[in-house]
């Protein structure tokens, strides 16, 4: 067995500002992949964990979903936040989404929404997705020749898609946008509700309050949308608990929005920064499926998940004890030199592209097909109308340890 390595570079995972400083982040990740692919991180206020930075190791861990489970630590949080989340769950009021669950419960609860993301449902939804893509490209055209692409387009278009899927009224848009940005913006000074856990907890409680009212409405008057499917779902003949129902809504509304908006914004910046690739894609829109996957790899909006060992084991020869947690760095895996040729080159024709941005195995992202459709539809609408585009200021990334990407992308452009 290898001697456990403690590499100072792995502390990058506990610093939310590292994801807002990509050169610093990727320098650390490149070092870790080469010299400490499994490293112990002991950095208060977080409990210790093992960082995993190689693509192959992450896939092996995701496959072994009985040996490495999501409970009780599905994502990186401070010890205080972990304890508060556990206390809330014990009190019957905490967030418990699909990412918190393991089989067999995970499989049963996942099935509730699965039909809404299958090919038949996606074909039906594509009409609305294409319509919204055109609406937002038209808005860019009507706005003149400059905008903050993130705040005026990228955060809005995917949220309208999710609200259409759930059947939520347009009048609730502003409220949902604010709550989703606050939920994933807890580490960013611009978006967080406050600095204390109690202040940030209020965001979750507001989500729960909104979706509790929605559940009651859909149970009394079911409609043909995903919200009704969740509200009226039964497991072993019993309806979902209030916590599980609200949690299901929260993960669809927030994760389904912020991840896609990050990909669209980051994808556009990549096309601006790589005009040869933009021309290549514009000249051959048949490359769009490959380009979509490359944008998702490039941005990797979900930065990590964590798993906890159910027995003593090893990863790359390093002993991991029962009860210890591993941190799966998807950002690192998606730049792994052993998997991707020239991984720091943005290539709209990259094939194969075995990125792990949607996870892998039983926890593979439920909404992956929808995210791909939204990205593809938007750029299929934008690129044929785009005469020119360039940065019109400094792009800014959100500070995070979980989900995120650009928060500002000032651009100037000319559309047909």
From TrEMBL:
It comes from the Bacteria. Its cofactor is heme. PANTHER family: BIOTIN BIOSYNTHESIS CYTOCHROME P450 (PTHR46696:SF4), P450, PUTATIVE (EUROFUNG)-RELATED (PTHR46696). InterPro entries: Cyt_P450, Cyt_P450_B, Cyt_P450_sf. GO terms for molecular function: cholest-4-en-3-one 26-monooxygenase activity; heme binding; iron ion binding; steroid hydroxylase activity. It comes from Mycobacterium cookii. It holds the Pfam family p450. Belongs to the cytochrome P450 family. One of its GO terms (biological process) is cholesterol catabolic process. This is Cytochrome P450. SUPFAM superfamilies: Cytochrome P450. Signal peptide: none annotated. Keywords: Heme, Iron, Metal-binding, Monooxygenase, Oxidoreductase.
């Amino acid at each position: 067995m290898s001697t456990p390595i403690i590499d100072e570079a792995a502390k990058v995972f506990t610093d939310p500002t590292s994801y807002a400083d990509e050169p610093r982040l990727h320098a650390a990740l490149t070092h870790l992949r080469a010299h400490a692919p499994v490293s112990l991180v002991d950095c208060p206020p977080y409990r210790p964990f093992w960082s995993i930075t190689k693509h192959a190791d992450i896939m092996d861990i995701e496959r072994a979903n009985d040996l490495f489970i999501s409970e009780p630590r599905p994502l990186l949080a401070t010890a205080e936040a972990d304890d508060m989340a556990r206390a809330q769950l014990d009190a019957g009021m905490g967030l418990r989404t699909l990412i918190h669950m393991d089989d067999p419960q995970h499989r049963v609860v996942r099935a509730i929404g699965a039909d809404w993301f299958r090919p038949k449902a996606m074909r039906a939804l594509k009409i609305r997705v294409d319509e919204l893509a055109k609406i937002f490209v038209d808005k860019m055209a009507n706005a003149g020749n400059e905008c903050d692409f993130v705040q005026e387009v990228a955060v809005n278009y995917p949220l309208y898609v999710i609200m259409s899927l759930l059947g939520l009224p347009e009048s609730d848009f502003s409220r949902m946008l604010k709550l989703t940005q606050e939920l994933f913006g807890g580490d960013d000074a611009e978006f967080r509700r406050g600095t204390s856990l109690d202040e940030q907890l209020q965001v979750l409680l507001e989500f729960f309050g909104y979706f509790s009212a929605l559940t009651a409405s859909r149970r009394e008057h079911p409609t043909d949308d995903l919200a009704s499917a969740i509200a009226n779902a039964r497991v072993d003949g019993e309806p979902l608990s209030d916590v599980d129902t609200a949690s299901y809504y929260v993960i669809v509304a927030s994760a389904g929005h912020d991840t896609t908006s990050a990909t669209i914004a980051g994808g556009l910046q990549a096309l601006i920064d790589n005009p040869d690739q933009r021309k290549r894609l514009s000249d051959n829109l048949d490359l769009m499926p490959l380009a979509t996957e490359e944008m998702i790899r490039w941005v990797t909006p979900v930065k990590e998940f964590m798993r906890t060992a159910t027995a003593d084991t090893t990863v790359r020869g390093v002993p991991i004890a029962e009860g210890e947690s591993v941190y799966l760095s998807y950002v690192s895996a998606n730049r792994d030199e052993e998997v991707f040729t020239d991984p720091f080159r943005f290539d709209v024709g990259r094939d194969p592209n075995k990125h792990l941005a949607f996870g892998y195995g039983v926890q593979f992202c439920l909404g992956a097909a929808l995210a791909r459709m939204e990205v593809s539809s938007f750029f299929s609408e934008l690129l044929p109308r785009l005469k020119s585009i360039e940065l019109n200021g400094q792009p800014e990334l959100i500070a995070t340890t979980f989900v995120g990407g650009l928060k500002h992308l000032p651009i100037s452009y000319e559309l047909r």
